[in-house]
Write a structure and sequence with these properties.
- The protein is of the alpha+beta class and 542 residues long.
- It is built from 20 helices and 21 strands.
- Strands 3, 4, 5, 6, 7 and 8 form a 6-stranded antiparallel β-sheet that branches. Strands 10-11-12-15-16-21 form a 6-stranded mixed β-sheet, with helices on both faces.
- Helix 8 runs parallel beside helix 9 (298-308), helix 13 (430-441) crosses helix 17 and helix 17 (481-503) runs antiparallel to helix 18.
């Protein structure tokens, strides 16, 4: 008996221990937090855990769409996530073409108003004309305070060959007009204007660096040369950039062979240098580049190569300061990430990327406002240049890194003629609205004038200012005779330019609007004064 007891007790104890272990494991699973990270992919592990164990049913795809922008937001300010719904529209702007109906529009009085019709495009073929109001799309009313440019584009753009039914309201027709438009390829032009000034100087306005910009640029240069221009103004104000390759090819036209244009380098991107190949046909023509605070990225590559190689002069205000290179990486669902993979450097070795903190885009976005409040737009002395980031151009002029391209000739923002009355009519969009209405009401008469010069001559003989003041009063802006007198020139020239754009297009708008543009006027002055131009290239001083 004693021997059997000695055998049974240890067995009972062992069984109790084993049972305790299994019970402990059971309750451990019930009441302890599971480990979701095994050392491979923490985010994927978390999402799988939510999918398996979360109390309610949730969309994992929706969580991912929310999470990715937040992750990317912890990087530099120019890395970004683009959803599948937005990507096509974002790409269209740079790719050279998109499929649509071929109109330029503006939203006036909560209604889509046709401002221009692209020559040879789908809308022109069915008879849509400037001034038509689109009041319904595919038999559904499309007016009111809820419409926006983005909503209009989504409705009017679509697959090539697809049809869209438009209902139009036209001044000359008492009844609405229905038209069916078959969508087609619409070119996206990036050269807004190219014309020869009265001084014989060729002016080219570049709005973006897209896929076809280099070809458009070459055609514009060739056109101006045929017209007799041998000096050029390249206006990059407001141009926020685009494809680096386009900028490299464009600046190559002005450089002899073997000159460094730009180089890039990143943690996972080897050093890559771009040199001029000597094929450019404008290597000896004087050139001035216009910049402002919204000139960024590819605009700064172009201007930096011109400045650092002492190939021309930069006129205007300090540029934006974007020296980061993005690569677009697609996901299988049609979305994409534009990830910063390198920094670019101008030929002198300077990075023009302004300072930023990782994950802090709000402070970065405030930089332009801070510049304005600091007085930088009005005084060169308000601009702080970092002496520790001093570089030299090919001929030894001093330039600075660390925050945009500083122009060789600073031209402050013009405040002459600014008054509270002008601010009121500008902020309410009344100048544009009146100009469009005037053009619409007098289109048959104005169409007789086919050049900016002839149309301007006619408009200057009309009492436009008086009519505008009456129009503005009807919109709630009380006439202020003293202020109107001070702002008279600005108001009249702005009206002339807007009306010309509505009748002829941008090729008439820019020659008029630039007449009182101080930056443009300074560029013309420099190109007409060979001695000063050369002196500045050699010394950087007038």
């Amino acid at each position: 008996m004693k021997r059997s007891t000695q055998i049974i007790y240890p067995l009972l104890i062992a069984a109790a221990i084993i049972a305790g272990i299994y019970i402990g494991k059971y309750y451990d699973r019930m009441f302890t937090t599971p480990v979701i990270y095994s050392g491979h992919n923490k985010i994927e592990g978390l999402l799988n855990m939510i999918k398996r164990q979360y109390v309610d049913t949730v969309s994992i795809d929706s969580l991912i769409e929310i999470a990715i922008p937040k992750i990317i937001g912890e990087l530099d300010p120019h890395s970004t996530y683009i959803s599948a719904a937005e990507l096509q529209m974002v790409n269209d702007d740079l790719e050279g073409t998109f499929s649509g109906i071929g109109i330029e529009f503006s939203i006036l009085d909560d209604t889509i108003t046709v401002v221009g019709v692209i020559s040879g495009g789908p809308s022109e073929k069915v008879g849509i004309i400037p001034g038509d109001r689109i009041i319904a799309v595919n038999d559904t009313a499309f007016t009111g305070s809820g419409i926006s440019n983005e909503k209009v584009l989504k409705r009017l753009r679509g697959q090539k060959g697809s049809e869209v039914r438009l209902t139009l309201k036209r001044v000359s027709s008492a009844e609405p007009i229905d038209m069916v438009v078959t969508r087609g390829d619409i070119p996206v032009n990036s050269i807004d204007a190219a014309f020869r000034t009265n001084d014989g100087i060729g002016y080219i306005k570049v709005s973006k660096f897209g896929r076809n910009t280099y070809t458009e640029f070459l055609n514009s240069l060739a056109k101006l040369r045929r017209e007799g221009s041998d000096k050029f103004i390249i206006d990059l104000r407001g141009n926020t950039g685009g494809y680096m390759e386009s900028a490299i090819n464009m600046v190559n036209e002005f450089l002899p062979k073997g000159f460094l244009i730009v180089y890039t380098y990143g943690n996972a991107s080897p050093m890559n240098r771009a040199y001029s190949n000597g094929t450019g046909i404008f290597k000896e023509n004087p050139v001035v580049v216009l910049l402002d605070e919204w000139s960024a990225s590819a605009s700064e590559i172009f201007a930096g190569a011109i400045q650092d190689n002492d190939r021309g002069l930069i006129v205007g205000r300090r540029s934006f300061g974007k020296g980061l290179v993005q690569q677009q990486i697609p996901f299988s669902d049609g979305s994409a990430v534009r990830l910063t993979i390198a920094r670019y450097y101008t030929p002198s070795g300077r990075s023009i990327q302004k300072e930023y903190k990782m994950g802090d885009s709000k402070e970065y976005d405030m930089d332009i406002i801070n510049r304005y409040e600091h007085g930088e737009f009005y005084s060169r002395d308000s601009i702080h240049l970092n002496d520790t980031l001093e570089y030299r151009t090919l001929l030894g002029r001093t330039v600075y890194g660390g925050g945009g391209i500083m122009p060789d000739v600073f031209v402050p923002r013009d405040t002459l003629g600014n008054t509270p009355y002008l601010t009121s009519v500008v902020n309410q969009g009344l100048l544009y609205q009146f100009a469009f209405k005037y053009a619409d009401d007098n289109r048959a008469k104005l169409k007789q004038y086919t050049t900016a010069k002839d149309l301007l001559g006619y408009l200057q003989r009309q009492p436009l200012l008086d009519r505008f003041v009456t129009y503005a009063a009807g919109k709630g802006v009380k006439p202020r005779p003293v202020y109107i007198g001070i702002s008279r020139k600005i108001i009249e020239n702005t009206l002339y330019a807007y009306i010309a754009r509505n009748i002829i297009g941008d090729e008439a708008f820019y020659p008029i609007v630039l007449m009182d543009d101080n930056t443009f006027v300074k560029a013309v002055e420099l190109l007409n004064d060979d001695e000063t131009y050369i002196k500045m290239l050699l010394s950087g001083k007038e």
